[in-house]
Amino acid sequence: MKRKLLAMCGIITCLTLSLAHKEVSAAGTTSITLQHFVINGSMYYQSSSKYTSYLSYGANTWNSYVGNVIKSGESSGRCYCSIYDTYYSGGIAARTIYSTGQMECNTFILDTYGWTEKVKTFAHEFGHTLGCGENNCASYNVMYPIMGINMGSRTLSVNDKASVDLARTYW
After folding, report:
1. Which tens digits make up the pLDDT trace of 138-148?
2. Three-state SS for 96?
3. Using CA atoms, how far apart are residues 144 and 97, in angstroms rounded to an integer?
4. Are residues 163 and 135 in contact, defined by beta-carbon separation less than 8 angstroms?
5. Best CA proximity match to 126, nearest among 114, 143, 109
6. Can you state the angle between helices 52-66 and 158-168, rounded to 10 degrees?
7. Nearest CA-CA partner of 63 in 85, 41, 32
8. What is the pLDDT of residues 100-137, one digit of tens each?
9. DSSP per-residue letters across 51-82
10. How far is CA 46 from CA 37, 81, 106, 116, 138, in A?
């Protein structure tokens, strides 16, 4: 009985995930994770990161399209995403951890980035908090997965907008 139930859950999960990726145009696709930090139309964050001053710029990349959804919870005490610094050589600049509601900022990488690259990184990570997945169809997408000096954009592409529009149906 237990195996049957697990098998059924696996099938449902596969069906759900396959429905989450849909073709938008010949140019690209939407990509969502079915996981997000949005509750009652808002995603509040609190930061102990030394990069806090860059966060609002990254949040504004999305807020300019979806409205004022991503908000600092510093004054209200609300927090759905805790942002903090960590250090490990190599790897990625930042990551969003759905299971714990956290965003890690890797100082080893981020300290080598200029203002624009830091803002792009946080725009990308905030996209994950809204439920957007990686979108590797073109490097101009905010949700493009490869980080580096020539990564992504600070302006939402048609693909980014389609992804967040689809993710919004799960908020």
Report:
1. 888 899 887 65
2. strand
3. 17
4. yes
5. 143
6. 80
7. 41
8. 999 999 999 999 999 989 999 999 999 999 999 998 87
9. THHHHHHHHHHHHHHH-S-EEE-TTT---SEE
10. 13, 7, 17, 22, 31
